[in-house]
Amino acid sequence: MSIWFVYLPNVFMRFVYNVFRKLIHDNTIVLYLDDILIPAQSESEGLEKLKRVLKAAADNGLEINFKKCQFLKRKIEFLGYVIENGTIQPSPSGYENEEQRRHECQRSTA
């Protein structure tokens, strides 16, 4: 394996960040690796922001995998949290997974 594979995620993230820099600074999107969240107060605001995101992606040669996309959701699970109605709560499934992970770590060290 080439040493360049080690740097590819870093290079990709820098490229994606540069593509969406203005939208990130305007609080239009939240970016994590290849996940883009578009928070909005209304459907029309969400659609307007989505147009800006898709235009920025297209202008820079990024392709969107629409099979993996979810649009106009009022409740999402993201990075172990549930985001809904302006609140952020720990995900119940994330908590169970964390408990299972701790249990497995305890068993493996015993």
Automatic annotation (TrEMBL):
Pfam families: RVT_1
Region annotation (Disordered) ranges: 88-110
Reverse transcriptase domain mapped to chain residues: 1-83
InterPro entries, per the entry: DNA/RNA_pol_sf (IPR043502), Rev_trsase/Diguanyl_cyclase (IPR043128), RT_dom (IPR000477), Viral_Replic_Matur_Polypro (IPR051320)
Listed Gene3D superfamilies: 3.30.70.270
Chain segments annotated as coiled-coil in the UniProt record: none
GO annotation, biological process: DNA biosynthetic process
Compositionally biased intervals (Basic and acidic residues): 98-110
Protein's name in the database: Reverse transcriptase domain-containing protein
Lineage of the species this protein comes from: Eukaryota, Metazoa, Ecdysozoa, Arthropoda, Chelicerata
